[in-house]
Amino acid sequence: MFDISPLEVEALLLSLKVAFWAVVVSLPFGIGSAWLLARCRFWGQGLFNGLVHLPLVVPPVVVGYLLLVLLGRNGPLGALLYDLFGITVIFTWKGAAVASAVMAFPLMVRSIRLSMESVDQGLEAAARTLGAGRIRTFITITLPLTAPGIFTGIVLAFARSLGEFGATITFVSNIPGETRTLPLALYTAVQVPGGEDAAVRLVIISVVLAFAALLASEYFVRRVRRRPEAL
Amino acid sequence: MLEVNVQYRAGAFTMDAEFTAETGTVTSLFGRSGAGKTTLVNMIAGLMRPETGFIRLENDVLFDSEQRINVAPEARHIGYVFQDGRLFPHMTVRSNLMYGVRGDGGLDLDQVTRLLDLKPLLGRKPATLSGGERQRVAIGRALLSSPRMLLMDEPLANIDIQRRTEILPFIERLREETGLTIIYVSHEIEEVIRLADTLVLLSDGRVAATGGVEELMSRIDLKPLTGRYESGAVLSTVFGYFDDQFGLGHLSFPGGTLRVPGVNVPPGTQLRAHIRARDVSLALTQPAEVSILNVFEGTVAEIGDENGPQLDVRLDIGAPLIARVTRKSVHDLKLSPGKKVYALVKAVAIDRRSLGGQGREKGREQAGTAQ
Fold it and tell me: Contact B88/A133, CB-based, under 8 Å?
C-alpha cells in the first residue's frame, strides 16, 4: 500500500513546480501591492484593497471561471499573451500556477502589508535626510525590515498553492502530467473504484508537505523573535 | 545663513514662525512641548511641508510656496539628529555611519570615530547600545553625510540625567571642531546655556523672542517662557584664576568677579554663568560679616509687575542680573528703579551645571576660519 506510483510522484513534483512558480511570479506584485496599501494614499485605494482580497471571499470556482474568461485563448488577456509572447496558459501547468497565485495572493499581501506597516516610518524619514531617495530608502530600509512578513507571506502562499483545487480544476481542468496537482490527483483517486490506497498515500504526502512548510515558517518566526536584528 | 519664514495649520495648532540663524553658530529653538519646535525642524529638513512661506539656506531656496519650490529631503543635505536616534536596527553601527556618506570631502569615518569616540561600537548592532551611545552614533551618521547644516531635536531627551553630562561635551566639541551651523531644539535651559549662541523662544507656534542667550535670559518679561524655577540671568565671564587654598574659581565679568567653588579651567576661557533669580538676595547697605562671597553693587533697573507674593527684580551691576524677592521685601526696602542696592549671590548656588561654553573662544576662531 506504501508503494508510491509514478503517477503520484508526478502529481507531487507538478504541485511543487506549480506552487514554486506561483510564489515566484506573484512575489514582486505582492510586495508592490502591500507597499501601495501600507504606505500610499490614493483615490480608489478601498477598491484596490477589495480586489486584492476578493479571492479570499468568493468561491474558488468563481475565480477559476473568471480566469477562464479573461485568460482563455479568446479572452482579452489570453489573446494578448498569445499574440505578444506565444504563451498559452489555459489547460497548461502555467495556468495552474496562475490560478494558485491568484488564490494565494491575498494571504501573501496581507502578511507583507502587516509587517510593512509595523516598520517605523521615522527610519525611512531618517534615510531620506541622509540623502537616500525613495527607491534607495525602500530597498535598504523598508524591505529588509519587512523580511519576516515577506517570508511568512511566501510560506503561506506556497502552502495555499499546494492546496489549490477549485480555481485550478475550473480554469485548467484535470490533465494528468499537466494540471493534475496533488489535490486533483486525490480527487481523481477518490472518484475511481479501488483508488482508496492511492488516496491514502496522497493524503500522507499532502500532510507531510504542509507540516514541513509550517515548521519552516515557525522556525524562522522564532529566530526573528529571538534576535530581531538578525535579518 | 538660514532664513525661515513659515506658516502652517493643523487642527487647533497654528504655526507662524520667522527667524534666521547665522552660519557657523548654534541657534537654540526653545519652548515647551507643543510649542512647535519639532514641526519647525521637520520643515527645515523637508519632512514636513509648510502651507506658505519660505526656507532658504545660504541663499539656496529649499522651500518657497510662491515659487512652488519644495526640495526633497534627500537633496537638501541637512543632517538631522532625531530625539529617538532612529538608527537602522538591521545594520551594524559601521553601516549606519556609512549610510549617508557622499564621498565628496567633508569628514571621514576616522575623524568622526575619533570625535565621538565610536571605535569600540563599530561592529555592534544598535539594539545593544545604551541611549547615550545611540545618540553619539546618530550624530556621527549625520556628520558623515557631509551636511550643510545640522538639526538636533532634543538629542538628550531620552537619556538619563546622569548620562547627559557624558554626551554634552561631545556636542560642545562638535560645535568647536566642525564649525557647522547647528539648530538645537531643547526644553532644558541648562543645555541651551551651555551650547547656544542665539536663542529663539517659541510659544504656541510663534516666535516670542529671538536674541543672544544673555540678552533674553535677563528679560524678566520672558520668564514664563524660559522657565519659572530655573529662570535667571546669564553672565558672560572670563576665567581668571583658581584659588588653590580654598578651591575657588575666579570669573571676571563687567560687574566684578564671581567666585565659584570647584571650577578650574585654563585662564582666559570664556564661561557662561547661569545665576538663578532665586539664588540672588538684595541688601540696601554693604553687608558685613556674611558668608556670602559674591556681593555686587548696582542699581534696580526694573521690577516685575506680577501679582503674586514673589517679584523678579532686574538689576544693573555692570551686567544684567535678576533677583527674585518677596513682594514684602520690595515694599519694606522701598525698591524702585534707580535705587542703589547690593546683590548677594551664594557661591555654592552656582554649580557645575550652571556653567557652560568651555572653550568657546577656540570654537569661534575655528568657525571663523571655516567660512
Answer: no
State whether B101 and B160 are in the same domain.
yes
* Best residue in B80, B99, B183 for a mutation probing chain A (most A CBs within 10 Å): B99
Domain boundaries, chain A: 18-180
Determine the pLDDT at residue A2. 65
pLDDT score recorded for residue B226: 74
Q: B30 vs chain A: nearest CA distance in angstroms?
A: 23
Q: Which of A128, A131, A133 lies closest to B102 in CB terms? A: A131
What contacts A76, CB < 8 A, 6 or more positions away?
A: A70
Residues of A with CB under 8 A from a CB of B: 120, 122-123, 125-133, 140-141, 144-145, 228-229, 231
Residue B79 counted as domain residue = yes
Query: Cα A57 from chain centroid?
Result: 16
Which residue's entry shows cell 569628514?
B107
Contact A120 B127 (CB under 8 A): no
Do B239 and B203 belong to one domain?
A: no
Task: Give the global pTM.
Answer: 0.82
Q: Note the ipTM here.
A: 0.81
B104 and B203 in one domain?
yes
Say yes or no to pLDDT of B364 above 70: no
Q: Which residue of B has its CA nearest to A120?
A: B86
* B121-143 per-residue burial string, b: 16 or more CB within 10 A, e: under 16: beeebbeebebbbbbbbbbbbbb
For residue B141, what is its C-alpha cell? 551618521
Cross-chain Cβ contact A126/B78 below 8 Å: no
- Name the minimum distance, in Å, from the CA of B224 to any CA of chain A: 32
Q: State the CATH architecture for A18-180.
A: Orthogonal Bundle (1.10)
Of B74, B90, B102, the CB nearest to A145: B90
For residues A58 and A103, the answer to whether their CB atoms sit within 8 Å is no
Measured CA to CA, the distance from residue A169 to residue B173 in angstroms comes to: 72
Which tens digit of pLDDT belongs to each residue from A8-61?
889 999 999 999 999 999 999 999 999 999 988 899 999 999 999 999 999 999
Please name the residue of chain A whose CA is at the shortest distance from the CA of residue B45: A129
Angle (deg, nearest 10), helices B131-144 and B109-116: 150
- pLDDT computed for residue A119 by the predictor: 93
Do B105 and B132 lie in one domain? The reply is yes
Identify the domain containing residue B289 by its residue range: 232-356
Which pLDDT belongs to residue B120? 92
Tell me how close the Cα of A82 comes to any Cα of chain B, in angstroms.
Answer: 43
Q: Which residues contact B295 (CB under 8 A, 6 or more apart)?
A: B286, B287, B342, B343, B344, B345
Convert the pLDDT of each residue in B111-168 to its tens digit.
889 888 899 999 999 999 988 899 999 999 999 998 999 999 999 888 877 777 778 8
Amino acid identity, position A189: A
Residue at which a domain ends, from B217, B247, B263 = B217
**Domain containing residue B326: CATH number:** 2.40.50.100
| Subunit contact B127:A229, Cβ cutoff 8 A | yes
More confident residue, B194 or A230: B194
Confidence of residue A182 (pLDDT cuts 50, 70, 90): very high
Residues of B in contact with A229 (CB under 8 A): 89-90, 125-127
